[in-house]
Amino acid sequence: MKSKSAAKSARPYEQKARAIAAEASTRKILESFLKRAENQWFEDITLDSIAQDAGVTVQTVLRKFGGKAGVLEAAHQHLGENVQLRRVVDPGNIDRAIDALTRDYEEAGRLVLRLLSQEDRHPMLHPIIERGRQGHRKWLSEVFAAHLQSLPAAQRSGTLDALVVATDIHVWKVVRLEMGRSVPAFKSLVKRLIHGVLNEA
Is residue 55 located within the same domain as residue 92? Predict the structure, then answer.
């Protein structure tokens, strides 16, 4: 038999192992949802399919998230964290900012476009997508803070609007998916648009 001290020392290890397993299970569920969301319409994604892809039961999904809306909210947070990691860049470094933006769109652009196309059909998507829009605008305001702060107050908002348009995901869609241009070509075009905005400002 194990001594009481041995049993006590084993408990923290077992608890840690369970916590790691639970975290891995949560991540698998969220990644399963996001993978399906990139290729399927929201209404066609079922809890059964999410659970099957993640290798868990539907009861596990329900216990963790409460339902499909909970999965969506948690998946958006998970996606947002990844976006932030991909967009880490020193303020004012335009080339690095374009690299980060391109990396983000290449990784998650198709998923975001699919969600955007369903915003009007599924009201629960709107607040999540709106947070994404505001996050993109905030990122630009931080990256280009020095340029924006040097402008008259009345001009800053319009210049930031123009930067939002120049770096919008639909520009990536047109250049990469519709025109079939290369990643370097996309970066070059976005750089020209950004410099055009800043030079005019």
Answer: no
User: Over the Cα atoms of the chain, what is R_g?
Assistant: 22
**Locate tokens 């993109």: which residue?**
136
Report the Cα–Cα distance between both ends of the chain, in Å, rounded.
77
Biggest alpha carbon distance in the chain? 79
Domain count, the chain: 2
Q: Is there a contact between 65 and 82 (Cβ–Cβ < 8 Å)? A: no
State phi, psi for 2 to the nearest 5 degrees. Answer: -75, 145
pLDDT digits (tens, 9 = 90+) for 97-131: 999 999 999 999 999 999 999 999 999 999 999 99
Which residues, 6+ apart, have CB-to-CB distance to 193 below 8 Å?
166, 167, 171
- Asked if the structure places residue 134 within a domain, the reply is yes
Cβ neighbors of 129 (< 8 A, separation 6 or more) are 115, 116, 119
**Of 22, 17, 135, nearest in space to 86 by CA:** 135
**Residue 19 pLDDT > 80:** no
Residue spans of alpha helices (H) in 40-124: 47-54, 58-65, 68-86, 94-116
Q: Which amino acid is at 15?
A: Q
Q: What is the DSSP letter of 177?
A: I
Domain, as residue range, for 102 = 87-201
